[in-house]
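dude i think i finally got it to work??
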Amino acid sequence: MEKLLNELPSSDVAAYTIKSDIKIDVKVPEHLKRSISLGLPSITENNLLRHFTNLSRKNYALSTVFYPLGSCTMKHNPLINERIVKSEAFNSIHPYQPTESLQGAFEIMYGLEKDLCELTGMDYFSLQQAAGAHGEFAGLLVIAKYFKSIKQSRTKIIIPDSAHGTNPASASLAGFEIISLKSESDGTVLPEKLKKILTSEVAAVMLTVPNTLGTFEKNILEISKIVHKNGSLLYYDGANLNAVMGIVKPGHMGFDVMHINLHKTFSAPHGGGGPGSGPIGVKSFLEPFIPIPRIEKNKSKFTLNYKKSESIGRLKSFFGNFHVILKAYIYIKALGGKGLVSVSEQAVLNANYMLARLRNKVDIPAGDRCMHEFVLSPKSLFRDNIKTLDVAKRLLDYNYYAPTIYFPLIVEEAIMIEPTETESKETLDTFIDILSKILFDEIIKEPQKIKEAPINTTVCRLNEVEAARNPILKWKKQ
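look at this
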């Protein structure tokens, strides 16, 4: 053992050190002792290794294949992120430590707030929120607190029907009444329609720019003037910031409040359910209301300020999901301003290339150009009762996870494709070739195969309604 330890790097020695002078006397009650052999199977090391390697291959991951859900969940996460966040410097700190011993972490969080302000045109940021929807909720609470402070009773939020489903849910949870605004076929908002439903009761209008159909809101400056003339505020859903970061700033478009999905735009994808991070940015007149504690810099020392009497308070324990915050900080510093612009440009280019290959073959509600994502409606191609869900299931047979389907709701049989900036032309071509084969060949020649898909997977077609209503839970006694 001593010879082995001498050959190990010094940093690894502690993990292998055996202290032979420690004696542990464990007394197991007689009735708990095994009386017969455990009967474990005998297996060679290489067979055991193959077993776990083959299990890992059954996982669907960005490291093995293209994931067309894009920046929603599976944007590339640079490996340097993982290497740094796993280092002892960041992995061994605890929020209950004295603030004097957390100065490095606070410096990163403070620096990230400043970077996000620069990128978005906002004046202040709070990093506390745990996800995008949590950020929406926090931003809407800030809006409610602001109007209360100026003694105005505004109880309604206007949200386009093409918006993310979390928008109306967050607004309702924050105590607002929802007014749905019918959008155009490309998901955009007509200023004239907005004017007709704006009243003195409207606190804010929530918009996603670009919208969920991948279209930029070309009338955004006019919309901003209309909203502010009414005394209302403008909220920016930052879910699609990946298309415009470094190119245009929400704060310059007239938005007063916004949230950013750090786990999307700045790597650290939350595929599988988390963790996420949804910082909110505000203009200066809303700063008194954002969550506490606030990280402040006093000369060379960072402190936590809890004394914000008008704040909506704390919405999450401690200081947010620090490792997601750290990954975003690394991502921004590694790429720099020009690099972030390049990310947006490449994401838009990739999406438009895929769109160009499909636009003359399938209906595209938002037209021939898009931002970072686009939505197809293959309804006119379907026959024999085939649906978009069947196409999604068939993609599994070709080892592709399906894109987002049936969203946005304003597009029938919708398929949303979002390639992100890191995918090569070859990867995009291969996916489009497979999708085209399903849509333009198999639907005609083998419709039954599509309706029965997936065929090649370990688990085949499920009765999803039955599975949702009567799940078979492994931990329950059958």
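The longest strand covers residues 202-208.
im so relieved honestly
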